[in-house]
């Protein structure tokens, strides 16, 4: 009888434990997120890059992604950039993050020599992966822009 009661209590307790415990991020529309960030006035004039251009720049395969939204400074000498990749799965998001980290690090080294005034921005680029999302922000105040992203994840 006591054994049976113990098993029932244990089963009931297990039902109360949340499965997965990890909160899934909210769905994010990259265009909307970019517009919200641009309203803060942190970005200079920006141009939109197509997913194929993102493939050329970073090696991120558009076929492996639900969405790719990329804006870069219209002035090719400036490093400002917004990039949101939503991969089809977390494994590809991890791969995309690695590609982005490598390329941004390479760009930072180039700018250290080529245009030192832009080096602080690119060397402090914010690159974050959250589930299937990978975000890159290159701006003077990347922290303020990053807050818009974290608010969107709630």
Task: Give an account of the 3D structure.
This protein has 154 residues and is an alpha+beta fold. The protein has one domain. The protein contains six helices and five strands, in the order H-H-E-H-E-E-H-H-E-E-H.
Derived from helix and strand composition plus strand pairing, the structural class reads alpha+beta
Helix amount, in percent? Answer: 40-55%
Our count of domains comes out at 1
Describe the sheet with the most strands. Answer: 5 strands, antiparallel
Strand fraction: 15-25%
What is the number of beta strands?
A: 5
Give start-end ranges of low-pLDDT stretches: 3-24
Q: What is the average per-residue confidence, as pLDDT, rounded to a whole number? A: 87
User: How would you name the oligomeric state of the polypeptide chains in this document?
Assistant: single chain
* Element-by-element helix/strand order: HHEHEEHHEEH
The Cα radius of gyration reads 20 Å
Walk across the major sheet and give the strand order: 1-2-3-5-4
Q: What gap, in angstroms, lies between the N and C termini? A: 47 Å
Shape, please? globular
């Amino acid at each position: 009888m006591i054994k049976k009661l113990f098993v029932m209590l244990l089963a009931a307790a297990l039902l109360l434990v949340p499965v997965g415990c990890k909160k899934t991020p909210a769905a994010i529309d990259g265009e909307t997120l970019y517009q919200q960030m641009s309203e803060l006035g942190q970005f200079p004039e920006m141009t939109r890059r197509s997913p194929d251009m993102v493939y050329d720049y970073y090696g991120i395969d558009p076929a492996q992604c639900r969405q790719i939204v990329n804006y870069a400074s219209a002035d090719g000498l400036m490093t400002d950039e917004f990039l949101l990749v939503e991969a089809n799965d977390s494994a590809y998001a991890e791969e995309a993050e690695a590609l982005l980290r490598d390329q941004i690090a390479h760009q930072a080294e180039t700018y250290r020599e080529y245009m030192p005034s832009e080096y602080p921005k690119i060397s402090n680029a914010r690159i974050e992966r959250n589930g299937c999302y990978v975000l890159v922000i290159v701006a003077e105040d990347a922290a303020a822009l990053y807050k818009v992203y974290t608010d969107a994840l709630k």
